[in-house]
Hints:
The protein has about 375 residues and is mainly α. It is built from 19 helices and no strands. Helix content is about 65%, strand content about 0%.
Amino acid sequence: MEVKTSSAPSILNWVSNHRDVPANLIVKIVDWFVLNRNADYGLAVMRMASGTLILGWLLQNIPVANRVWGPGSAYWDPYRAVLGYQWPLDILREAGTGFFWGWYAVAILLTIAFIVGWRTRVITPLFFVFYTAINAQNTPIADGGNYFIRIMLIYMIFADISRRWSLDARRRSLRGNNSESQIGTVLHNLALCLIVAQLCLVYFEAGMYKVQGSLWQSGEAMYYPISSKAYGTFPWLSELLTANTWMVVLLTYFTVIVQIAFPFLLFNRITRRIALISILGMHVGIAVVMGLPFFSGIMASADAVLVSSATWITIATWLGIQFRRIGRRIPIAKNWIRSEPVSMEGPLLNSEMPEDHESSTKESSMV
């Protein structure tokens, strides 16, 4: 009786059996960049959320704007010279009061247009110039959110951030003009990759910088910003968190681990959800405990591109249903609320659903 013996595994046999893997991988990558504009719902959320935060920032600072960024901030001129901002970002350096307030007013209008997604191909670069020029007048008072969103705006110039939930999308739908150029699609996806790469770089670098400090290694670091009067928004909450040593240690290590691990957790759907929930919890904590809502909100708005389009559609549909339920209880608004329930093809999305719904659930798979 002849007994067949299996041949020993070899690298040559494995390579021979998987010789099509590199070519298939290249095809998948090319298709991802060329066939569809990915994470368009996430970018729409990022546009609306970051724009709303900037609008609030501009409106809140109107009483002090002239002294902080206008002619009253001339004492910062030597510092501006060191930074070396070039035209048009230094246009307010010698501006008078009238020109400054005109610039500030236009910046507010551009922010509103950016939020609602009106003519974003033109508005976004103008918005970047007007907003950055104001910040360039007095960068020492800016926080990480101001710096981060300026970088994000550069990437968003090349992305189709108004493809969903915008006036541009409504106008294209009414005209029946949904044609998209392949070059525009590639630029959109490249910009998306740069946004994700920038996010990963910021988190990873921040985590690696922290882990080198002795206070972070010992688990004490979070005690100082939480208990600081300069950051504490709710003293009773700060005292509650710092009263327990183990809570301080847990928050310290949690912050470092989440930031360092964030880029590596994005490659799997389950770990990506864990990373996003964890990083959102960190931002909420920074906003509430340390009183930095603008910084936390800007960072969280960029994280929105990592959430799948199917998830954003589900959230939007649920919010639409809740809005209609509340509206029906208000006599004044009752006549404005449609009686029919919201569906995936209903008025909530304004005919903005992708032609291939299955592709929308997979379009964020790379990130």
